[in-house]
Fold these 2 entries.
Entry 1:
Amino acid sequence: EDQVTQSPEALRLQEGESSSLNCSYTVSGLRGLFWYRQDPGKGPEFLFTLYSAGEEKEKERLKATLTKKESFLHITAPKPEDSATYLCAVVYPTGTASKLTFGTGTRLQVTL
Amino acid sequence: DGGITQSPKYLFRKEGQNVTLSCEQNLNHDAMYWYRQDPGQGLRLIYYSQIVNDFQKGDIAEGYSVSREKKESFPLTVTSAQKNPTAFYLCASSVDRYYGYTFGSGTRLTVV
């Protein structure tokens, strides 16, 4: 079963139109949730790490929040340069070890 | 500037041939990873190494091999046993096993 699900798969916004991306997870004992930005043909770039429910992190027009079941990446007044694929990943315990699993991403397009 | 360098950016392989993808980092990170990215799927772990001369299989290691003779280098060989090698390959490194990944810019491998 999917441990990490991102929605929507794709999102098209006009410049200035705020919205949120969702990352829901079904793992137990979350040890960390990460957000990355990936531009076409490039490697992911780290944005945020969240560890516990209620935690929030901000960077420019982006704000990441975490609950016990999901994380949101809020984009306020987006600009065309915010267009990218946004990935989330979770770390969770598996027996005596841990595992890192990535979601499939949300492709964001911001138009003028 | 510190970072991860992957080469080549594009690689074409004939069926039946082995190819090696290069990954070099100057971040002084102990841990290094290889991921495969396919459309509509999350990043999948091929191999990882937490220390020189030691590496572990990830979720999809069949048809791949790695070496870690130097801290800075973690080359990936895609062998002829890999049945569907066409994909985007990403190398990453980190200080700790799951946290603070830095990704390279990727190598796109195409089998012709």
Entry 2:
Amino acid sequence: NAGVTQTPKFQVLKTGQSMTLQCAQDMNHNSMYWYRQDPGMGLRLIYYSASEGTTDKGEVPNGYNVSRLNKREFSLRLESAAPSQTSVYFCASSVGEGNTEAFFGQGTRLTVV
Amino acid sequence: GENVEQHPSTLSVQEGDSAVIKCTYSDSASNYFPWYKQELGKRPQLIIDIRSNVGEKKDQRIAVTLNKTAKHFSLHITETQPEDSAVYFCAARSAGANNLFFGTGTRLTVIP
């Protein structure tokens, strides 16, 4: 039982490049989330998926897109990376349906130069 | 949406002393308040949570209190140990919502 797994762990991009962060959970959770963590800003929600087939914007969705590929997988795409997207990205999942105890992945440290 | 404020941003205590971290929230409909601990370079992990129908909850050396009228909740750690050193985040969830709003974190340092 691996929990929530994110790939890659580290990434350096040039401004304008694109990339996809992958996330998978093996806990049969309904809901999945993408957060970014910046110094002094806490964890801010980018997008979430309450259940398979649905996605919704969070607090800071600009510059990102997501895909809920199936119940297990939820990917985050940066179409044209900008230095302001330098951050640590966390994927999380929860049972959903009113139970929001979130289980986090190990994080992806992204640097855009 | 919900707005969660957390204080202090940094806290240093001597080993064995108590530590208190406070959070306020804006949405009176919020009904779930978890606390997460994040060690350096690691993922956030849930340490304790409380729901709006309860005023206090304890788990060994940690406790959380909730004041719905004042819209604030606090984390209390007693008999602190060096392994308690970490960043702690509070969060809140509005009723009917499916996501958490986090505070900005408190870096706790326990001095041996």
